[in-house]
Every structure is written in structure tokens, then in C-alpha cells.
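Researcher: Go.
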Amino acid sequence: MTRRSLCAILPILFMSIPAFGLDWFVDLETGFAFPGYNDVQVPNDSTGTRFSLTGVLDVETEFVYRARFGLTTGRHWFSLLAAPLRLEGSGELRSELRFADEVFAEGDLVDGLYRFDSYRLSWRYLLLDGSRFSLAAGVTAKIRDAEIRLESGGVSAATTNTGFVPLIGFDARWKPSTCFTLQLEGDALAGPQGRAEDVFLGVMIHPGGSTDLRAGYRMVEGGADVESVYNFTLVSYLMAGITQRF
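Model: Structure:
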């Protein structure tokens, strides 16, 4: 197939989407991330110091965003999500700290980074679709790209991890009126070596047409307890978002 033929066919396919029952949407969310506990030990044995990253360092509140692109067809819902997170802080150590095979001495001025970028492919199925209440559930394939880094003078130490995490997704909505909806939505799963939860609770506003607005609280919590690393983190968000359907 030539490039010219492809360019001619793509607009026809795009205009035919409604005929196949496909509804596309773009979802953007932004707000502020407030760091909670962040307990770290690398490596997870006697050679590493277990410490609180947010206790040792003054970790700042950060402006964050996330973007989702997806489609619905019948009772099925598919989406791709990108949710980057970067928290930074600095502080003076009150005691010696051993991290990732490096030693930071008492009194050292340390800069720290906690990065946790999340990319997810999700599918959900609409189980209940009433006039007041709806419930969808499904599965999410999550790729995490994480890093914890400490630097002081000429000493730098870091641990990185990129891996796959399966999650259970859900979306419960209660619509007391045509103007707004209460929503509890997220992905979560726990296992022997760790857990992960990303849950939103908020209000959706329906101004009319194909646009929805929302605002609420989001919690991201979890971590892992394995041989190479111990890390459990809580981050709270105040978020606002918009969903545009096509």
C-alpha cells in the first residue's frame, strides 16, 4: 500500500469510528503532590540503613500532571495512561547513612530525588449501568520506572528499577443528579513482596456536551520488600481534570 493510499484511507476510517460504536476520549489531570512517608533501605540487609526519605530531607510539594487516552465500545473501556512523578528535597544528615553501597556521614548536606513514572494499559468492563449507580472492573498492565538518588559533594548513590506490575482496576460512580457524579476510581493490588494502590475520590461536573470536569483527592501508595530494596511510599494529591470525548 502506497503512502498516498494510506493517507486517503485513514480519514475515512476515522470518520467511520462512530459506525463501529467506538467513542474516543482524552483525559488530562493536574494538581499538587504532597509527600507522605517514604521509607527506604538499599540494599535490604545489614549493609543498608533503613531511613525515612521525607524525615531526613525536606521534600517539597510538587506540581504534577497525568494524561490518559482511550476508547469505549459497548461495555468495554480501554485506556493508555502516563503518570510521571518527581519529588526532590535536601537536608543535613543527623547520623551516618549507608545507601546503595555508599556512606553519607553525619552532618553531610544531601540532595535527594524520588522518581516514580507510571505507564499503564487498562481494560474495564461495565458490570452495572443504572440511572444512579454504575460499576466497572477490569485489569491493568503497569510499567513502573523508578529511581531513588542521594548526592552530597562528590558522593552519589542511586537505585533504579523498571518492571511490570499487574493491577485490578475499578470505577464506581453515583449520580444523584444530572449535574454531577461522585466517583471512586483506581488501580490496586497486594502480594507477598509488595503492594500498589492509585485511588481517586472526587466529584465530576457535567456542564453539557462531550466534556466532563472533576476535582478531588488522589492517593498513591505502595512499595516492595525484596532482597535488593525496601521502599514503601505514600503520596497525596489534590487534583483537577478534564475529559473530552470525541
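Model: The CA atoms of residues 44 and 227 lie 5 Å apart.
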